[in-house]
Amino acid sequence: MILVLRALGVGDLVTAVPALRALRAAYPGRELALAAPAWLAPLVDLVGGVDRLVDTDGLDRPVRVGSAPRVAVNLHGRGPGSHSLLAATRPGRLLAFANQEAGFPAGPEWVEREHEVDRWCRLLSWYGIPADRADLGLRRPEPAGLPTRATLLHPGSKIPAKRWPADRFAALARALTDQGHRVLLTGSADERAIAVRVADDAGLPAEAVLAGRTDLGALATLVADARLVVSGDTGVAHLATAYGTPSVVLFGPVPPALWGPPPDRPRHRVLWAGEMDWPSWDGVGSHPMLAALGLDEVLAAVAEVERVVRVSGAIAA
């Protein structure tokens, strides 16, 4: 068995797809087990190549895999917690970043400011396993009667600092509706309140709020067949990249150079005001980098990605 630890969230899983595919190719005859939260199961199925999902949410509990894995791979972090968790499974070999505190001096050095996709590809490359950082695509799920060609606005984030102000999302929803977009609001159950607020302020009907009403598989289906996705730096943005769905992603405070879509894909536009000199922040509400992004700037980015789609469609025809 090859055991891979990535006990995090949606964006974390999607950015690890090239590494997971590389491990599948490197060990074609071995069971590939992924230690990740059970609620990610619908998305794990869309990655392909993973034989077993071992329910692991964070680093607080042992990874229960039965027999010792032949190889354990730390795609979770630099240690020592994640290293120790995998070492406890008694693997024949551990692939991980070097960490003296965890008693693991072997492995490549951790680079702090490195794109998340490149980080894990580099780790495997150090161990002689080639990985293609462009291999980000996910399997397309069945439509299952969900709306297609909708414009998805995702106003929430589990990190409040990464939320563009709700009143601006509402203004964006009104403007896009006036332009002929069918606007739907996505999010988790915890983000439903903010989605309802945006819908109310934008004059959208209650049925436009899908936040809290879709599981992860349904969200992936919506994104795969959407006209456009506008969100902060959160999991749904990575789904848009995986499916090539046109997107506008609002970044702050983390720069897109660390978590953004590949810069050579013009269907995905990132907005970030990080080059400016920011005053101190009280930690409440949206980060100033996000608050600095105006409605007109976002609408211009939407127009830009839609123009790219029209041009590429015309060329294909």
Defining key terms:
single chain; 317 residues; alpha/beta; five-stranded parallel sheet; 12 helices; 36% helix; 13% strand; globular
Question: What class, by secondary structure content?
Answer: alpha/beta
Number of distinct helices: 12
Q: What's the helix-strand series?
A: EHHEHEEHEHEHEHHEHEHEHH
- Radius of gyration equals 20 Å
Low-confidence stretches: none
How much strand?
A: 5-15%
Q: Mean pLDDT, rounded to whole units? A: 94
Strand order of the largest sheet: 3-2-1-4-5
Task: Characterize the largest beta sheet: strand count, sense, and whether it forms a barrel.
Answer: 5 strands, parallel
Number of strands: 10
Q: Helical content, roughly? A: 25-40%
Q: Report the span from N to C terminus.
A: 47 Å
Shape: globular
Describe this structure in words.
- The structure is a single chain.
- The protein has 317 residues and is α/β, with parallel strands linked by helices.
- The protein has helices at 10-15, 17-26, 41-47, 81-87, 116-126, 166-178, 192-202, 216-224, 235-243, 256-259, 288-291, 295-316, and strands at 2-5, 32-36, 52-55, 71-74, 93-95, 151-154, 183-185, 228-232, 247-251, 268-272.
- It is built from twelve helices and ten strands.
- The protein has a five-stranded parallel β-sheet, with helices on both faces. A five-stranded parallel β-sheet has the order 7-6-8-9-10, sandwiched between helices.
- Strand 9, helix 10 and strand 10 form a beta-alpha-beta unit.
- Helix 8 crosses helix 9 (235-243).
- The N and C termini lie far apart (47 Å).
- The model has no long low-confidence stretch (mean pLDDT 94).
